[in-house]
Fold this sequence. Notes:
Order of helices and strands of chain C: HHEHHHEHEHEEHEEEHEEHHEEHEEEH
CATH superfamily of the largest domain in chain A: Type I PLP-dependent aspartate aminotransferase-like (Major domain)
CATH topology of the largest domain in chain A: Aspartate Aminotransferase, domain 2
Structural class of chain C: alpha/beta
CATH topology of the largest domain in chain C: Aspartate Aminotransferase, domain 2
Shape of chain A: globular
Low-confidence stretches of chain A: none
Mean pLDDT of chain A: 96
Number of strands of chain A: 11
Order of helices and strands of chain A: HHHHEHEHEHEHEEEEEHEHHEHHH
Oligomer: heterotetramer
CATH class of the largest domain in chain A: Alpha Beta
Strand order of the largest sheet of chain C: 2-8-7-6-5-3-4
CATH class of the largest domain in chain C: Alpha Beta
Protein name (chains C, D): Glycine dehydrogenase
Shape of chain C: globular
Radius of gyration of chain C: 25 Å
CATH architecture of the largest domain in chain C: 3-Layer(aba) Sandwich
CATH architecture of the largest domain in chain A: 3-Layer(aba) Sandwich
Mean pLDDT of chain C: 97
Keywords (chains C, D): Oxidoreductase
Number of domains of chain A: 2
InterPro entries (chains C, D): GcvPA, GDC-P_N, PyrdxlP-dep_Trfase, PyrdxlP-dep_Trfase_major, PyrdxlP-dep_Trfase_small
Largest sheet of chain A: 7 strands, mixed
GO molecular function, one term (chains C, D): glycine dehydrogenase (decarboxylating) activity
Amino acid sequence: WDEPIIFELSSPGRRGIGVPEAGVPAVELPAAVRRQAPPALPEMSQLHVLRHYVRLSQETLGVDVNIAVGQGTCTMKYSPKVNDRFVSDTRIAELHPAQPEDSVQGVLEIYWRMERMLAEISGLHRVSLQPNSGSAAIYTNIAMIRAYHASRGEGEQRDQVITTMFSHPSNAACAKLAGYEVITLMPDAEGHPDIEALRAAVGPRTAALMITNPEDTGIYNPRIAEFVELVHGVGGLACYDQANANGILGITRAAEAGFDLCHFNLHKTFSTPHMCGGPAAGASGVAEKLVPFLPGPTVEFDGERYFLDADRPQSIGKVRPYLGVTQNVVRAYAWIMALGAEGLRQVAETAVLNNNYLQHKILQIRGASAPWGRRRLEQVRYSWEELYEETGVHSEDIGVRAADFGVHYWTSHHPYLVPEPFTLEPTESYSKEDLDEYAAILAHVAEEARTDPEFVKGAPYNSTVHKIDPTCLDDPEQWAPTWRAYVRKHLS
Amino acid sequence: WDEPIIFELSSPGRRGIGVPEAGVPAVELPAAVRRQAPPALPEMSQLHVLRHYVRLSQETLGVDVNIAVGQGTCTMKYSPKVNDRFVSDTRIAELHPAQPEDSVQGVLEIYWRMERMLAEISGLHRVSLQPNSGSAAIYTNIAMIRAYHASRGEGEQRDQVITTMFSHPSNAACAKLAGYEVITLMPDAEGHPDIEALRAAVGPRTAALMITNPEDTGIYNPRIAEFVELVHGVGGLACYDQANANGILGITRAAEAGFDLCHFNLHKTFSTPHMCGGPAAGASGVAEKLVPFLPGPTVEFDGERYFLDADRPQSIGKVRPYLGVTQNVVRAYAWIMALGAEGLRQVAETAVLNNNYLQHKILQIRGASAPWGRRRLEQVRYSWEELYEETGVHSEDIGVRAADFGVHYWTSHHPYLVPEPFTLEPTESYSKEDLDEYAAILAHVAEEARTDPEFVKGAPYNSTVHKIDPTCLDDPEQWAPTWRAYVRKHLS
Amino acid sequence: MTHPYIPNAEPAVRAEMLAAIGVESVEDFYADIPAALRLNRPLDLPAPITSEHELVRHMGALLGRNTDTTEALSFLGGGCYPHHVPAVCDEVNSRGEFLTAYAGEPYEDHGRFQAIFEYVSMMAELLEMDVVNVPTYDGFQASGTALRMAARYTGRRTVLVTAAIGADKLSKLHDFLAPDIEITMIPVTETGEAAAFTVDDTVAAVYLEYPNAYGVVETRMAEIAELAHARGALLVVSADPIALGVLAPPATLGADIVCGDIQSLGMHQSYGGGHAGYIATRDEPRLVAEFPSRLFGIAPTAVPGEYGFGDVFYDRTSFALREEGKEWVGTAASLWGITAGVYLALMGPEGMRELGETVLARTRYAMDELGAVPGVRVLHPEGVHFREFAVEVGDADALLTALRAHDIFAGVRLDAGTLLVCVTERHSKDDIDTLVRAVREVRG
Amino acid sequence: MTHPYIPNAEPAVRAEMLAAIGVESVEDFYADIPAALRLNRPLDLPAPITSEHELVRHMGALLGRNTDTTEALSFLGGGCYPHHVPAVCDEVNSRGEFLTAYAGEPYEDHGRFQAIFEYVSMMAELLEMDVVNVPTYDGFQASGTALRMAARYTGRRTVLVTAAIGADKLSKLHDFLAPDIEITMIPVTETGEAAAFTVDDTVAAVYLEYPNAYGVVETRMAEIAELAHARGALLVVSADPIALGVLAPPATLGADIVCGDIQSLGMHQSYGGGHAGYIATRDEPRLVAEFPSRLFGIAPTAVPGEYGFGDVFYDRTSFALREEGKEWVGTAASLWGITAGVYLALMGPEGMRELGETVLARTRYAMDELGAVPGVRVLHPEGVHFREFAVEVGDADALLTALRAHDIFAGVRLDAGTLLVCVTERHSKDDIDTLVRAVREVRG
């Protein structure tokens, strides 16, 4: 579709929906707060609004339509359709969060049961489902760490947080925002975070270690318990970023490695849909000593009824409105219930099998490599360094060309510690045939890069739009973050 | 997408959904009725089934995605999304049709109210919502006509039904199937069915006149009351095919022209979605004298409760299981309620305005014409005769090329009484901009036909598949109406 | 307000369009409609509800007067069945592209053609027959047409129809086969199966149901096929495809035309709105010629290896031939065909088998348990039952009313003393036990 | 059974893949995980429900223990509002492509980029501001970030916050602004508006809500903006966009940063799961530099006239700079942004105005009617109210409980004696009368 910007579809006087008339006397607003000019919103009939968005949806590559193994670290898996039905049911969709407890026993029970299941999956004591996302859960964990140390009179002393370069950027960013100095460990020759660097970093100023494992490289750090011990040894807390938990469900847990806190992303490991980038849902798990600091209220059960406990004086308070992203809690609950313990283990094993199978196929492509050997769990950060040196084609160019074949492809977070990186994570949802096809696409593009590098650099050829010139996006004189700004700067 | 046939996606042992285990002792079937070989159905995971069908859906051009004015006679209009919600509500979706009446008062009220509204819209006495479609309603009407004449002892004598060439083929086909000889009136020089031919045809053998007005040409027959009178004059019944009622809602009715029966298509005039070709829904309206013959049971109201009346000895009986295509009755009811009398009249007037505007644009295209002057209501059967004579490009070729622009295009029913026909019906749902765009596409293709006829004949270029060779479809040695037949004939 | 459904009702646009055409008003377009035929008043309809919210409230109030089968415990079947509808079936058939498409050509609607072709192909595997039609309206229509096909094929005018058929379906057959085809009933024995009968040279078809209206599976079908074939008649069988994961396909027992309803394969009950009919035959041109419905087939395209689709043998339909075509063809029930295809693809061979086994076992369990209640007699207890069975209960209306108070819809009333009870995979053992307990209680 | 969600769990496929890789078993891949860290037992979870139907039953039983706001008559607001959700909003956000997309690049996800760009653009028109972010989590987060942006922009560490703010939101602000930003409260007068206050050179921002936590519209905003600007502070306003069809956009009254929650614009209440936050500013590079969120912008492509999309000023985010970026960015609430865009496109300027007028009028009607009940006192009756108002009722808990028995959720409890009552376009005059009648009855 060559679909215009929605403002270009507007025609005065048209309407997309009717609104109830007041049916009671009108109220005159004082001039000071009365809107003067009507907002320049589009004026369209209902079909035309719908058609516009249906066309845009068709120009969007969700899990439901593609082989979504190309967005590594995102754990793109199948989100069962049946779970969406529970969420659109009015008995979830039309619940107000301030309803009396007797009218929401069902949803409270789901929260309560979900918390117990995630506690078992992590081995930790309690879990808050309030955070809005993985990053929000990281911030929640930092806030609890801060409150914990403050409660012990060490709030000012402990002003450093240690993380690693292959942990998600939010670990560093949230710690910084919470007022901490951030120390980032670089990988050693094996691809693990450098334990010597950690030894040098820990001390009385250490508030916490925030670490992912397996890291974004897909490599599991076998000395993780030592990391935790080192931090504990100086009185710090250890916080496990389990955004990438998909490969280890039922295999190993935060508790066994000694962590005090962890978080999960329900929209990754636990299948809730990614929704174009949220709403997501995070879950923060804590060991017993951190329970008093959990966000409130918590959901409790007295053997007969479920209720909210807001009387938590040491709590860090609210991290969002109400209890959590309920829709995703419901979906994730249903997903776990459909799988059970054995199913979750199959998820993990198959995700890891798929990843290793895909790695096996990718590494057969000339020009592709994976630094630090082949030991990977659920994802791999690969490199096109050789291909780039041979052809001058960047990983980013390859990704754009891959779009012509109807698949995603992601390089990595900045900085590109792995040169010409790309990150694939197949999860358990894709079939062998899917993996074969994805590898074949990359092999095909790599071959194109060798035979006709300029062709690859000129991609896309098969997308809605052609190659974008991004220079204006960083130029304040030209950037147009809204149509209003675009009209002002470029059309008038 | 280059999506394989679903059997090609199968891999042994995979499953798309789990089924409850019995939980009670198993039953052994006798060998005589026990299935020997498992059916060769696809074996796929759930995501893969979903993905396959989502891709196929994206390769299908519904009203929601295109300017659907190109399927004349089909009245492709916007089907409001809100009405779909009522239908997917469990209080419709999960109702069994044999439930006790006290448990289905809501749905019975909708049937009852809908019947009254359609009775008012047609001016006839009662309406049955049981027929499955417009054609099924035509057959229902024929069956009632037959029962009516039989009840008067004229069943054998009246063995002819008269229809017109621009009435839908089902009028002729259903009459024939019901045992009648069919007489078809051809259009006169004005494009109206020939009244002289009717005069010649009517007589004691006449059971009924089955006629559309406006006909598939979009021309309203101003002497329709005379037609009805002529038939009444010989003791026949007059039956109005109102599949194309969209242009005359609230303007003129079956009753005013004297008709004894009529039918509507809820999936045309009354907005229910076309669903790839059904389920549709028809409505048969009858004058008082035909009420005893209506299909049973009918929905009645005693002032307090709604109930079913199955005690109708002269009824033609059931024409389908249960009361009707409930989903479409619900949708059509909600649609009328959202519009009311004034809204329906706006629907009619706007549909006619849109059609005349589109005609104005189309007739500016060199090579396009509309036989019999410009008087049209809601649709027009056009002709590319001039263009064909100039270029050798058939109407069908133009339709295929139009598909490259993401729009539908329909020629007409056989026989092609209008040479190189095409039939457009814009309804009230499309904007002026849509009509301009559609006309521009046809103008563009007509220009292509003049400059490069072979290019147009080679279309499509932008569709999922390329030009189809249909010869095998009529050859019993080669045709493959199922994959099973294809494998046997072509792959083994 | 310009109505949200009518963009060009906006006055300025309307004026602009009229001006472009060169007419004064919309009235000019209606010049052909004589004054005498005009309705010179507004239609007498309820006031419009122009805000979507108020429409939702209005409809909600109506729907609120229904009690559905997720609220009550329902054992109603008798032609419309409460099987589980997979969420993916709903997801696919509510996709706007499929929901709002119609009769496009193979290029615009390639996906629709393929999805329907795949549906007929999966049905073909289940049925072990090579030709299956694009869905007709429902099982009633499918049976009527199948019998007419048999009559046209044989040139004969009598059909022998099992008495183990629902009353409504028989009513439809009577109306649809009139005036030229005569129906003779085949009685039913104590086992619930067709009794012995004879076939003569006027018989076009013998017609059975599988399972039949009492839920009984005809075990002598192969024998009956031989009997029919011996006198040149066809065997026509209406089979519910949901049972064919465990039951032998009728074609393997000698059936010539198999037909039925696909509501079981992923359609909601929807107060009777979930029906669609199928008709299947072997790939014999004379038989194929008798289909009134559309048949979709694979065709090659300009690109080798690519699959296109089109109509098989179009020149037998009323679209092509008007009254010279076979019966008639029009808009029928394609979306339910696509949905049934999704259902079969999800289930696969194993799912269909497991489902059949669960239904067989639970049906028998329900028969045994209900049969043990004093005053309740299960009919045809020796027969093989799939999903349904009839029980004599004394006063059926009284029992139904008493159980209704327990929020149980106990069964479809067959006559004053008999109920038809339906058990599917949706009915857990607990549900059956609940029914039995309630029956005991209200009869105690 | 091979689980429907795990295709390669099928044993033969699994074996084939292991063989291709050349390893014995999946265990080999886990070699890096030390034995001591292994969980050497199955997880202790409930038994799986592997059939979809039984899962639906299980969930249905849980959901059945909820009573939702279509069953009871709810006047609950206080941050989560019962506005009508147009069906087209649900249709668009349930499209699988949008629902299951994530963080793709502009070529694969052109539609997602455009839809979000259009959302921010429509918000920009409503707000009359040029820069609007890709949604953040919720209104709480938006306020927290807006205040941090103001602090970074001004280099100051105090913010003055209206006391007419919800307790939960204030709790979040306290946690989020700690340790480096201090909050001072601005008291509220009898009219429900901000009382007079002074601004000094340490103040980064004055923060107001519009309408505020009592439903009162601040009418002195322009004055307050001048006061703040005179001392180099910014005016930050949290505004519910649903009101801006009738209320003046804060930017026109002098606000520098406007923020808030968009739940009102087409999201269901969903037990608090429908929130998303927006932040808007003028197009001033120094201010834009302080956004932590992504901003999408138009960019030209190789084809003239074609619109591409991309990230504006990416090198301020934590994705690009880790701890040197602004706050953090992660998955937030994009789909609710797309939905709000659909909502605004459906409503258009007229719809937003009509809705605002209806809400204003019905709120006032409810205030007048409830205020006339003996023993009920409406707070801030002189203020301009949009959608909410507080009432003193004596014993709030007793009243709530009594009305609950009438299937009425009468309001959000503010304290032992006060309720916050919410009225939207979903509450008809009849609904309000029903509430008033019930209050009279239970207090009579």
